[in-house]
Amino acid sequence: MDNLFTTSFPVSCQNSRDCPDNQTVNSTSPALLNPPAFGMSYFTMTLGALSNLTALAILAHSYARLRRRAKAPFLLLASALLVSDLAGHVITGALALHLHLGRVKHHRVALIVEPPQVYCKLFGGCMVFFGLCPLLLGSAMAVERCIGITQPLLHPTIVTMTRVRLTVLLITFTALILAGLPLLNVGNYKPQFPGTWCFLPVNSLLSITDANLALAFSTLGLVTLTVSVVSNTTSGLKLLQARFKDRCVKSGIARRHGSFSSSSLHSLDVEMMTQLAAITVVSCVCWSPFLIYILISVSRFYEGIRRPRRQCEKLLLLALRLASWNQILDPWVYILLRRAVLRRLLQLLQPDRLVFTHSGSYRDSHRKQIGLH
């Protein structure tokens, strides 16, 4: 989802009796006289696309340089995540821009024509699909690293490249099924305030099917975030445990055994866990308000509680804007949180200590670790 274009237009105007005449609009709503500003929207679209392309290039270079079996599943999932972010950013941004440009032609009047139903269904399906895919892929990455750190001996057997590819296909199929149900007339997509995007209805009078689809979307998204947090917390605790254990080892032989028994001490694991932790934080901050808002809205629908529509629409739009930044921030995790960048940062913070060492003993232990994985 891109940073959607917004204006001060009303949501919709079904007929001329519901709309004020031009004179009234011009005298009471001077903001409608000014064409909407596109600068920020163009900037975020360009930034998001370039960021994802840069991060994909970094991952491709990393894979070609390392070719380590232990990191191959992680790189595949990370690449799928960035491809999903890039496609969602460009496609939904283009669809929103098309609607917004159509509205600019009528910026001097209050009459707003809703997008065609087919177009709205396509737009809404893309919003759901490209919203779920990054969440599901991020959760899969967290589970993969949790297995790799907590069960390093079983990791090569459990997490094979074939299974990772099947997981990516399963994630794509799951998101596609949920996004495609309204296209099969199971539920519906409707224009959302201010008329520049389409999504599952969550604020107006809902049908049971619409409510269930919105509930499934929000629940699935929150479950994936929870799985990511739990998996990364478990992996982080394992890293700390191994670090404290290694500090207690004094002799050279004991240090070699400690390095051999704990893959989490290697820079490869530290790099991947740092990236995963950042991805999880970004996803939780960006997506939680949107998902929780949908969950609360559907719950209040089931309870029969009605709220002011305009206030709810503005809150939903604000939550969506925050969620759209997830696709822009995700690639910067891979751009900034690389070992080269982390090593330089640690050198600045602690000049006398090098966490990511390249000593001979490290290389020897690392070769042993590669053999295990």
Helix content: over 70%
The end-to-end span amounts to 37 Å
Just give the CATH class.
Mainly Alpha
Average pLDDT, all residues:
79
Structural class: mainly alpha
Amount of beta strand: under 5%
Which radius of gyration do the C-alpha atoms yield?
A: 24 Å
CATH fold-level label = Rhopdopsin 7-helix transmembrane proteins
- Figure out the total of helices: 13
Coarse morphology: globular
Question: From N to C, what is the helix and strand string?
Answer: HHHHHHEEHHHHHHH
Kindly report the spatial arrangement of strands forming the biggest sheet.
Answer: 1-2
Query: Which regions are unreliable across 5 or more consecutive residues at pLDDT < 50?
Result: 6-36, 258-265, 354-373
Please outline what is shown here.
71% of the residues lie in helices and 2% in strands. It has 13 helices and 2 strands. The chain has helices spanning 22-28, 39-66, 72-104, 117-150, 155-158, 161-180, 208-247, 252-261, 267-303, 309-324, 326-336, 339-349, 360-372; strands spanning 190-192, 197-199.
